[in-house]
Structure prediction request, 356 residues.
Amino acid sequence: MKHANLTVAGLISLGLVCLLQTPLPAANLPYRLLKEIPIGGDGGWDYLSVDAGAHRLYVTHADRVVVVDLDQDARVGEIAALPGIHGFALAPDLGRGFSSNGREARASIVDLKTLKTVAKVRTGDNPDAILYEPARHEVYAFNGRSRSVTVFDALSGNVTNTIALPGKPEFAAVDPQLGRVYCNIEDQNAVIALDTQTHRLVNTWPTAPGTEPAGLALDPVHHRLFVGCHNQRLVMLDSTNGAFLAAATIGQGVDATAFDPGTQYVFSSCGDGTVTITQLVAPDNLASVQTLATARGARTMALDPRTHRIYLAAAQYEAAPAPTSAAAPQRPRIIPGSMKILVYGMEPAPEPAAAK
Prediction:
């Protein structure tokens, strides 16, 4: 993922996906801000992950994961000592989570009940995106600097394979039914497909007209990949053959992309302070639904398919320092303690209190 906030991005069990296939009426729109959940602390963030069955949100933050109860909308714990964490993948069937610790080239295996690390697995340099493949109970850690994937057993932690990639990996998605793991290759304007049985790279597909692909989401029922690209394009590909099907315009600085099987909505969260919502209205057609105003820098996001809410990480920033040379301007610093989660949904606004 890019910089501090995406993606994205948590894994949804296949059973829950299948239960949510009947689209909700579009009249439930628009999405609106429902509440803010204080996170606090210092430092940046990256991926967010939702465990819909356990009603929990996992927020990567500096060197830890903050755990949020989605019934209470409040912090209930944290997982510490995860240097340079980028992502946190969930294996609810095993009661485990897996972090990609970029600064130590390792993945932590975490007990989701105790929130304690039970083991660490050596990966390549700077593991970033990470996902759990439930059919074979394996974890895929995508190593940005090494341009490789470390595959390890989710129970034992034993590394089963290391797969070389054609470029820098970004976000990834898994389809257990097809036996495929997909990943954006940002510097090659491509999406790759890995075979989960052989651990081989079996396809490389262009993302044109999209460039610098970042966010990635999957509709396993219709076999559709949704690729959020930095040239403000959301590209839809056929996940069986890589064919280009449709594209839509999104905001600037996209990071996370999410697909809601219950509404058929595709969400693209962008650093310019917007989430573009489109809808899969036909197998080969995307329709624009809403441009949701969020907050500057709120580019990482997670979706809860149970409630159809989306969660974005945000913070307040100090004034940007004045440029001292012709070099690129420095990014503004996060104000300590200001990090929060923005919660958006389709619930109607509460009725105003009756005048007495």
